[in-house]
Amino acid sequence: MGVPLPGDFGRRAREILAGRLAPVPARDAATVVLLRDDPAGLEVYLLKRKPTMAFAAGAHVFPGGSVDPRDTDHAVAWAGPSPAEWGEALHADEGTARGLVCAAVRETFEESGVLLAGRDDDTVVDDTTGDDWEADRLALIARTLSFAEFLDRRGLVLRSDLLKAWAHWITPVVETRRFDTRFFVAALPPGQRTRDVGGEADRVAWLRPADALTRARAGEVVLMPPTFHTLTEMATFETIGDVFASDREITTVLPAPVEVDGQIVLMVPGLDYRRTLGGLATREATP
């Protein structure tokens, strides 16, 4: 059993499977599972995308987005594992890895106000809530300010060691907007706090992974397959330390359309469809 592909998605899938339509190329993107330890248990930060968004409308997602060409700039001040080391972890070339890590840090700041950067490789900024920070965040979103310029202006370095590579999902070929997305995990830095920054989201929340999954199964929230799968994994951990201490081998997941008894369905590895369909969107991942 798979996730049914209705309407245009089903028709596109048939055309692609028949070789009459070429899939849209997937753009490199990064997503960050932001974590915090709470007395009630490990929590994750989720944004509810506005219903007017062209992609993943109304779904609860992690912060993330496409790689900006400037994210690969060697001018981005860097501390922690090098782009070459990240390339090995992500199974990507050095330039792509540089862009993915930079996009992960930039998008997290743009969509949550949390900045994984510091004055040097031993420090992290502890407050990003002032008006000047907000002006820079909006300039990054508008792409009038590059991340390299932002860091240089503030005398900061990107802290790549605050991220852990987690997963690799590629949007199914049936989508008209596709992303080749690397998932990372990161802890909320001491002193920093998330805030409702608006933009693409109309609601944000910290939730225990198990609670988010329960709400999805009840149809109260919509989760894309990668989000559901990642929350299922996060629900097995008690603390951030447990997450970072876990061994992780990155494998690529590409949900595939198939025809079953005359119906086009999307097969997503690792999901228990019978338990998830209540709150599982048929459309794919992140940005």
Automatic annotation (TrEMBL):
> Is Manganese given among the entry's keywords?
yes
Stored InterPro entries: NUDIX_hydrolase-like_dom_sf, NUDIX_hydrolase_dom, NUDT19
Say which domain of life the source belongs to.
Answer: Bacteria
> What are the required cofactors?
Mn(2+); Mg(2+)
What positions does the domain Nudix hydrolase occupy?
25-229
Q: Give the UniProt keywords, A-Z.
A: Hydrolase, Magnesium, Manganese, Metal-binding
Question: What protein am I looking at?
Answer: Nudix hydrolase domain-containing protein
Q: What is the lineage of its organism?
A: Bacteria, Bacillati, Actinomycetota, Actinomycetes, Streptosporangiales
